[in-house]
Each structure stands twice: as structure tokens, then as C-alpha cells.
Design the sequence.
């Protein structure tokens, strides 16, 4: 049975204003799908890349947006096992389309969620927390006593990284654009906050580490920070370039990695670290355990009504937000 839903969609790539509310007919869930009513929806910088059309190839338009959410199951498609009508679930990935009151979702992306966690907490932490989970445990693992550099440390991913790494006994050097964000990062476990819009961050990292450099740089800023980040690494350190909030990283001559100390470089995506169902579930369990233990927390959340998605995008792009950003249907 079809039902009418409201979705924020775009007909062409562009500025936040291309996001418009539309009333649509949603078909019954197909084979292998569950239909959900969203309770809270996470906004991620990846949605901004999708909206702008900067990925190659860009998302075909017209399209919905949004890669994560928390919802309650309203209908079950043929062949679906393990989920029941009325059950709450969360998801990361699948076809973009979370910015909607309801949607159909491949059940392969659905995760059962602990009852104790609020809708807001899960939506604030599931995508960004799973990103941190794979970055610090599986992509470039670190351990007690290590020192790392986390760019945009007061952002959504950044704050969770500070919390989790601090708990593990890793010293976090973070970069932020303002003194207020420096205070937020420090309150979440960042030992040294560098205001990279005012200070030369490689010089500060050298000073903090006594000239040694860090084991890993987790760099989601891209164009503005990539080259200088290589100068922050110790020999045989790892450069994790996992985002491009300031623009794409220019082409690189790989000889540079040798000259700067036999460095490792990776450009990971959460898609490849959660593609295998068993890994996806194990990562979620790891995250839920960290949340239950109070290691990872949704202390800093900004919420917008679903219809204000364009404003949410504008605020994130203008670097006005800290922590996680949610849309509430
Ligand atoms: P954030 O909340 O971190 O927002 C982005 C932050 O980047 C801003 O707050 C800002 O912090 C900083 N920034 C630096 N330069 C710019 C600029 N020119 N324009 C805008 N922001 C800038 O977003 P998310 O937590 O949603 O995502 C963080 C990053 O992680 C993104 O780059 C995203 O693409 C990436 N990501 C990658 C994944 C992957 O698997 N590869 C998965 C999930 C996220 P400040 O003001 O302090 O400089």
C-alpha cells in the first residue's frame, strides 16, 4: 500500500536552498526492504558533498539526501527476517534518502539498537561513531601512549574521536577554528587544541611532541590541511585522509611519502569498512558498548526541523556547528 510522505529533495546540485520539501507517494517495501518512520535523522558533511555534486560521479538528480537515521518499522517486505513492525532500528548507508518522514531501507543496512539509548543519542552517534570506530580501531589503529592529530576536533566526528581516543590513553592534538571550539574539544578529551586559523599547526605539533611528530593524522579537512599534515607525522607514521570539508586534496607525487619519512597514506570510506554484515554488526556492538560505558557521548547536539535542512547545511558549511547535527521529522 502506498502512503504519502514528506521528503527534503533536490532537483539540481547547488547551494543549500536547492533542498525543498516535497510530498511523495512511498510504495510498500520491496523484497528485502523494511519501511520505517524516522524518529531522528543525522546530518553529515557527506550530505553536503552530495548536495553540491562534488563526488565523481555526482549523485544523479532529482534525489533525496541523507545517509543515516533512527526509525520505527512500519512495514516489512518479502523475505525480511529479524525485524518486526514496531521495532526501533538505526542505519548507516544504503541509498541516500534519510531526509524524509518515512523511507524504504534495505534490511542489510538495518541495526537493532539498545532500548536504553534515546533516539537523539543514536542519531547523533551512529554514523559519526561508526566512522571513528573504524578509523581508530581498524584503519589506522592506535593504542595507549600514542599521540595523534585530529583535524576539526570540535566537529561531529571530531568530538567522538577525542572522547574515544582519550579513554584509550591516546594523547589527542586537535585543530579547531575558534577559541570556543577549542574549549569544546578540550572538554571532550582533546589534550592540546590548536587554533589552525591563527597558528601554524605543524610548528605547534612539533613543539608539543618535542619534535617527534605524531603516529597518525586523521584529516577530514582536505585541501587546506593535507600537505602540512604530512609534516606533522613521525617517520613511518600514517596519514588518514578521510574527508575534504575545505575542498579536494590535490594530486600527490608518491615519492613525497618517502622523502617525508616512509609514510603510509590511506583514503578510507565507511562504506568499505561496513560493507560486510558481520563487520558492520561488530562495529555497531563496539560503538554501543562504548556509549553504554559513557566513553562516547552525545553531549553536543544541534537539532533542526526536517523542513529546515537547508539551514542545517548552511550552518555546517559556515563552520557554525560543533558536535552532531540532527533533523527531527
Ligand atoms: P563536521 O561537524 O566535522 O563539520 C566539518 C568541520 O570541518 C567544520 O566544523 C570545520 O571545523 C571544519 N572545516 C575546516 N575547513 C572547513 C571549510 N572550508 N568549510 C567547512 N568546514 C571546514 O562534519 P562531520 O562530522 O559530518 O564530518 C567530518 C568530516 O568527516 C567530513 O569531512 C566528512 O566528509 C568526513 N567523513 C568521512 C567519512 C569516511 O568514511 N571517509 C565518514 C564520515 C565523515 P572548524 O571550524 O573547527 O575548522
Sequence:
Amino acid at each position: 500500500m502506498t502512503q504519502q510522505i514528506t521528503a527534503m529533495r533536490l532537483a539540481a546540485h547547488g547551494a543549500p536552498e536547492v533542498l525543498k520539501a516535497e510530498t511523495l507517494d512511498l510504495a510498500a517495501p520491496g523484497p528485502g526492504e523494511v519501511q520505517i518512520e524516522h524518529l531522528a535523522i543525522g546530518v553529515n558533511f557527506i550530505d553536503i558533498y552530495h548536495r553540491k555534486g562534488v563526488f565523481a560521479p555526482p549523485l544523479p538528480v532529482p534525489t533525496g539526501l541523507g545517509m543515516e537515521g533512527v526509525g520505527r518499522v512500519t512495514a516489512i517486505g518479502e523475505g525480511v527476517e529479524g525485524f518486526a513492525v514496531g521495532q526501533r532500528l538505526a542505519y548507516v548507508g544504503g541509498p541516500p534518502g534519510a531526509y524524509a518522514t518515512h523511507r524504504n531501507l534495505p534490511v542489510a543496512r538495518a541495526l537493532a539498537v539498545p532500548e536504553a539509548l534515546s533516539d537523539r543519542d543514536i542519531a547523533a552517534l551512529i554514523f559519526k561513531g561508526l566512522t571513528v570506530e573504524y578509523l581508530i580501531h581498524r584503519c589506522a589503529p592506535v593504542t595507549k601512549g600514542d599521540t595523534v592529530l585530529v583535524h576539526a576536533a570540535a566537529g561531529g566526528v571530531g568530538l567522538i574521536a577525542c572522547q574515544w581516543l582519550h579513554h584509550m590513553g591516546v594523547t589527542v592534538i586537535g585543530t579547531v577554528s575558534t577559541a570556543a571550539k577549542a574549549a569544546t574539544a578540550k572538554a571532550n578529551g582533546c589534550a592540546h587544541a590548536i587554533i589552525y586559523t591563527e597558528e601554524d599547526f605543524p610548528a605547534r605539533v612539533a613543539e608539543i611532541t618535542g619534535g617527534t611528530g605524531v603516529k597518525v593524522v586523521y584529516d577530514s579537512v582536505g585541501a587546506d590541511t593535507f600537505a602540512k599534515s604530512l609534516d606533522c607525522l613521525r617517520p613511518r607514521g600514517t596519514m588518514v585522509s578521510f574527508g575534504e570539508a575545505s575542498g579536494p586534496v590535490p594530486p600527490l607525487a608518491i615519492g613525497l611519502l618517502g622523502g617525508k619519512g616512509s609514510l603510509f597514506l590511506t583514503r578510507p570510506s565507511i562504506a568499505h569498512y561496513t560493507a560486510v554484515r558481520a563487520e558492520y554488526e561488530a562495529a555497531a556492538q563496539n560503538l554501543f558498548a562504548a556509549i553504554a560505558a559513557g566513553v562516547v557521548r552525545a553531549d553536543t547536539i544541534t537539532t533542526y526541523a526536517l523542513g529546515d535542512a537547508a539551514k542545517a547545511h548552511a550552518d555546517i558549511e559556515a563552520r557554525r556547528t560543533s558536535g552532531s547535527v540532527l533533523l527531527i521529522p
Q: What stands out?
A: The longest strand covers residues 33-43.
